[in-house]
Specification:
With 775 residues, this protein is α+β, with helices and mostly antiparallel strands. The protein contains 23 helices and 33 strands. Strands 10, 11, 12, 13, 14 and 20 form a six-stranded mixed β-sheet that branches. Residues 401-773 form the BLOC-2 complex member HPS6 C-terminal domain.
């Protein structure tokens, strides 16, 4: 049965702030650029330079701040503006032809606020001709000063452009993080830039030199590759282009190394370009629509009933549910993407229609969740969605029926009985109450909109995950897709109770994609280095409670499943071992009763050491750092003992001096340990000032001498005035002077004299005269 296309009104724009101004701009200026935010709640309208005020309008649906900006005559207006896919708050970036870029955000104060301003072309003398935002990156094409004539014989300005990229990500509540600029292409022509969800398309423009105007490029950041394609020649070549590895290309060198691309060919005569998740759509002046796929191949999609007659770029192209939608003037044509057959043709009541990008996965609101897979069109009359009606005679199951069918499969998988469980049994049995409760809610006890509001976050998460999984199962195995899947899964699991299946799933993700899993944990714990080699965190206590909990009392974890803390330590050992001690030190500061830090069970440093392996097989340097940073007396003494064995005297002394006044006993034990070494050999003589600082202030000179006497090596023969050649020099009074002065630095003791020689140490005058000798 033939499907029927529907054009349904979603909103008459009255729900948006400044609805009257919004309708006025949409109806009055055909050249206005319209963009929708990733969450579907904001609309951005940017008028071309020279238009009347306002030139920028950002309208919010429901409660939300508006933004209106106008640039006076003589002052340039932005070249383009884009929403940024930041989940925490709405944000947009404005880019000027001069290279100035401004990032604005809402939700961090009253109204919209300028978060950061930067120069994309700090050297001066460059002009931005095209810009696009692509998944946390800002990509632009800039014109630089022309050099000498190229080897291909074009004018000097033909290859005076370059394409640059820069990461742009949120940082904290009210700031942004801009990466360094990386040049993707040198000496290239003027390219137009278009972006889909995963690819960047570099297309020729009217000013591109005709000798290369038949070539376009497709950059896939997730794969680290660029595809050079000539659709009219049927040629495509793949090259590596990964900014993370420092890849860059000279455009002229790139083309010379690809056979056949420089064959004489007419430039691409394209009326309208349109990026889609399937590839790049192009509409020529004859009405033929073609699709350039991400691998560089080109196929015809279909031919429209009428050819475009308006200026370049005035048509609107989009895809939904295997259907191509094209708006030409006031006509909407729907074509089957597979066969090219015309499915439906509608006449609209206006000729000024704009296509809105679909919301980002997981960021849809109630309307998008109900009309998933449809195409959104915006005009002065309102916001519409284009979709397909279900064929008549097909009865869709009710939500209540779906609940019992899903619950039936769920309970059957966990049932031990052999009999088959049926939905009817679930309806009337009093054993399974959860599906009955949910069915009663869906039956009308709660309005659907209220239920969607209650489950909005969960629906977004699960919908986004399922869509991403479906893309990967379909064969898109690019690294970025797997990374995003792992990050979303870890973020979801950290919001659950990490026991049983959830903990096993977390272990699986960390084993399969440790880098992506650690990145998600980094954001969840809000870890940042403080510049002194330590870490700080702004995560709430509930998150740390989940990470530090799950203490295991057995030596070997069941089935190899590690608790969250041990799992993170193991991941850090693989990726960044130097950050393991600061992480454990920070975790010890976060613990509460029963969390695994400051509560019953093993201390966190012992749990981290267990991850490193059995004693004797652990990396020595990492084990030492863990022991020293733990702050535990036994651990510090153990570490100092190892340092003494390695004869690393500086580190041993620093470890003792790092202990504060609250640990006098540990400092005293470290001092005695080092004093024993000082008494037996002379390797500590150069470090005597530090040893004096470590000396306990309450230690009396007599006690020091008694300690030294116990540590002195036994004499094997009669004393001699000088040591034997090659023997270790003995301890002398001169070496002891600094230590004895340190113990006596507090003044004459108030108690009785403990030694007949102690008054010599306390007498500041000259020594007594020598008694007369008998002649």
């Amino acid at each position: 049965m033939k499907r029927a296309g529907t054009l349904r009104l979603l909103s008459d724009l009255s729900a948006f702030g400044g609805a009257a101004r919004l309708r006025e701009l949409l109806a009055g200026d055909p050249a206005v650029r319209v963009r929708g935010s990733p969450d579907g709640r904001h609309l951005l309208l940017l008028r071309p330079p020279g238009a009347v005020a306002p030139q920028l309008l950002v309208a919010a649906r429901g409660p939300g701040a508006e933004l209106e900006r106008t640039w006076p005559a003589g002052q340039p207006s932005p070249l383009d503006a884009f929403f940024l896919p930041w989940p925490a708050r709405p944000a947009l970036v404005l880019v000027w032809e001069s290279g100035l870029a401004e990032v604005w955000g809402a939700g961090v104060g009253p109204g919209w606020r300028l978060l950061q301003s930067t120069e994309l072309c700090p050297g001066g003398g460059a002009r931005v001709v095209a810009v696009v935002a692509l998944r946390g990156r800002l990509v632009w094409c800039e014109e630089r000063q022309a050099g000498s004539e190229g080897p291909l014989g074009p004018p000097a300005t033909a290859f005076s452009h370059c394409v640059c990229v820069r990461t742009l990500e949120p940082s904290g509540e009210a700031s942004t993080s801009l990466g360094r600029t990386h040049v993707l292409l040198h000496h290239c022509p003027a390219f137009g830039l278009l972006a889909s969800c995963r690819h960047l398309f570099l297309v020729p423009t009217a000013t591109t030199w005709h000798g290369v105007a038949h070539v376009l490029l497709i950059w896939s950041p997730g794969k680290g590759k660029v595809m050079v394609a000539a659709p009219r020649l049927g040629l495509s070549y793949s090259k590596s282009l990964n900014p993370g590895r420092g890849d860059t290309w000279d455009f002229r060198t790139l083309l010379r190394g690809l056979p056949g691309l420089l064959s004489p060919r007419e430039p691409l005569a394209v009326h309208t370009w349109a990026p889609t998740p399937h590839g790049l759509l192009l509409l020529d002046f004859g009405g033929t629509v073609s699709l350039v796929q991400s691998h560089g191949g080109t196929r015809a999609v279909g031919i429209l009933q009428e050819a475009p007659v308006g200026p370049r770029g005035s048509a609107t192209l989009g895809t939904f549910q295997g259907t191509l939608a094209c708006v030409l003037g006031s006509t909407l044509e729907l074509l089957d993407m597979g066969s090219g057959q015309l499915l439906e043709r509608k006449v609209l009541s206006t000729d000024r229609v704009h296509l809105l990008e679909p919301p980002a996965p997981g960021m849809e609101d109630e309307e998008e969740l109900e009309t998933g897979g449809s195409l959104r069109l915006l005009s002065a009359l309102g916001l519409f969605c284009v979709g397909w009606e279900a064929p008549q005679g097909v009865e869709l199951p009710s939500a209540k029926d779906l609940v019992f069918e899903e619950a039936c499969g769920y309970y059957q998988r966990r049932s031990l009985r052999g009999a088959q469980l049926t939905p009817e049994e679930l309806r009337h049995s009093s054993t399974f109450r959860a599906p009955q409760a949910l069915a009663s809610i869906l039956q009308g006890h709660l309005p659907p909109s209220t239920l969607l509001t209650m489950l909005r976050t969960e629906l977004r998460d699960y919908r986004g995950l399922e869509q991403l999984k479906a893309q990967l199962v379909a064969g898109d195995d690019e690294e970025a897709g797997w990374t995003e899947l792992a990050e979303q899964e870890v973020a979801r699991l950290l919001r659950t109770e990490l026991i049983g299946d959830q903990l096993a799933q977390l272990n699986t993700v960390f084993q399969a994609l440790p880098t992506a899993a650690w990145g998600a944990t980094l954001r969840a714990l809000q870890l940042q280095p403080d510049g002194n080699g330590k870490l700080r965190s702004q995560a709430p206590p509930d998150v740390w409670k989940k990470v530090l909990g799950g203490i295991t009392t057995v030596k070997e974890p069941p089935n190899g499943i590690l608790p969250p803390f041990e799992l993170l330590c193991q991941c850090l050992c693989q990726l960044e071992p130097r950050w393991l001690p600061p992480f454990v030190e920070l975790a010890q500061q976060q613990g509460g009763p029963g969390w695994g830090a400051g509560g019953p069970g093993l201390p966190l440093y012992r749990r981290a050491l267990a991850v490193l392996g059995e004693e004797g097989t652990r990396p020595e340097a990492l084990e030492l750092e863990l022991l020293l940073s733990s702050g535990r007396p036994k651990a510090v003494l153990q570490a100092v003992g190892q340092l003494v064995q390695k004869e690393q005297w500086d580190r041993a002394l620093d470890a003792g001096l790092a202990l504060g006044p609250s640990s006098p006993l540990v400092r005293s034990e470290i001092f005695k340990l080092l004093l024993a070494e000082f008494a037996q050999h002379r390797q500590l003589d150069a470090h005597l000032p530090l040893l004096c600082r470590l000396c306990p202030p309450e230690l009396a000179p007599a006690e020091l001498l008694l300690l030294l006497r116990t540590y002195l090596p036994d004499e094997v023969g009669p004393p001699t005035p000088f040591p034997e050649p090659g023997a270790e020099p003995p301890l002398t009074v001169g070496l002891l002077k600094a230590l004895l002065e340190q113990t006596g630095a507090q003044g004459w003791p108030s108690g009785p004299v403990l030694s007949p020689y102690e008054d010599i140490l306390w007498d500041p005058s000259t020594p007594p005269p020598t008694p007369p000798r008998d002649l």
